[in-house]
């Protein structure tokens, strides 16, 4: 984009996929910036086992390191992503969930006399983070048409089976 605020011809030309005549027409592909950001996010998170590994296989300090990396990546994406509520709102919510997790498991926050209580804080905080991420990642995948590996998709919300059965009975 030129400094004058105009869109350069070259950037428009890159998105034109065809021209038709006799009654002039142009085929156009809109920029895929938001979709690329969504794809980058999903690819990054698919390798973050803290989001989907069974709790008993996780080790607190390693999870905390992973959550810090996730928060950094979300911040980087927010700084470079096109400002679109469909994308920015979920990114901010996930980043806030990272901060909340880090606050919850901070050993200086809690005066715990027994290690078992620390494990409860860890599991509870990680479960809440996974729930927030599952909801917002599902929204992003649907909005931008991004496929996701089954491990990461395992934290997406599921439909209520009872409601499904009732709706099936109501449908003639």
Structure description:
This protein is mainly α and 172 residues long. It has one domain. The protein contains seven helices and two strands, in the order αββαααααα.
Estimated structural class = mainly alpha
Give the C-alpha Rg.
22 Å
- Helix/strand order: HEEHHHHHH
Could you tell me how far the N terminus lies from the C terminus, measured between alpha carbons in angstroms? 55 Å
Q: Considering DSSP H and I runs of 4 or more, what fraction of the residues is helical? A: 55-70%
Query: What's the overall average pLDDT, rounded?
Result: 78
How much of the residues is beta strand, in percent?
5-15%
Show unreliable segments.
6-13, 28-32
Please tally the helical runs, counting DSSP H or I stretches of 4 or more residues: 7
Secondary structure layout plus pairing:
Elements (H helix, E strand, L loop, with lengths): L8 H7 E5 L4 E4 L4 H13 L14 H21 L4 H21 L9 H30 L5 H4 L7 H10 L2
Antiparallel strand pairs: 1-2
């Amino acid at each position: 984009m030129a400094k004058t605020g105009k869109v350069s011809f070259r950037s428009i030309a890159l998105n034109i996929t065809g021209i038709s005549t006799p009654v002039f027409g142009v085929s156009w592909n809109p920029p895929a910036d938001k979709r690329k950001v969504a794809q980058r996010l999903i690819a990054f998170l698919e390798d973050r086992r803290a989001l989907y590994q069974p709790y008993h296989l996780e080790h607190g300090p390693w999870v905390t390191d992973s959550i810090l990396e996730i928060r950094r990546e979300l911040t980087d994406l927010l700084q470079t992503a096109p400002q679109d509520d469909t994308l920015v709102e979920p990114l901010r919510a996930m980043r806030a969930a990272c901060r909340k997790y880090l606050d919850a498991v901070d050993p200086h926050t809690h005066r715990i006399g027994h290690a078992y209580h620390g494990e409860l804080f860890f599991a509870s905080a990680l479960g809440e983070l996974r729930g927030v991420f599952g909801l917002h990642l599902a929204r992003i995948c649907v909005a931008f048409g991004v496929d996701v590996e089954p491990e990461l998709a395992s934290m997406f919300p599921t439909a209520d089976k009872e409601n499904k059965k009732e709706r099936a009975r109501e449908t003639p």
